[in-house]
Amino acid sequence: MLLYRPVACLLLVPLLTSCAVIDAIDAEMEAQRRAQEAAWLAQARSSCEQFGFKAGSDALAQCVQTEVNNIKNRKAIADEAQATRSAMQQEARQTREAIENAAKKK
Fold first, then answer.
1. What's the total number of domains in the chain?
2. What secondary structure, in 3-state letters, does the chain show?
């Protein structure tokens, strides 16, 4: 029975360490998400107050919600554009490499 303990520890420690690292990364990502949402809320509230909405009013709350949704939509569009741009750049690199490789073979 004692022989199995060191083997079990050797097998389990990397898994447990990996889980701890994953948990830490998840916690950091959650903290970043919350900070981003707080920043969006502050930005939206500031914009709505500049538009003239009064603090504590239902109209301000509606404006803030609309502005936060608009911010999220703009971010989603920008993220999609960046992903598309990256994919196009990768495709261009692959095409260029294929052309270069074909030219070398001639």
1. 1
2. CCCHHHHHHHHHHHHHHHHHHHHHHHHHHHHHHHHHHHHHHHHHHHHHHHHCCCCCCHHHHHHHHHHHHHHHHHHHHHHHHHHHHHHHHHHHHHHHHHHHHHHHHC
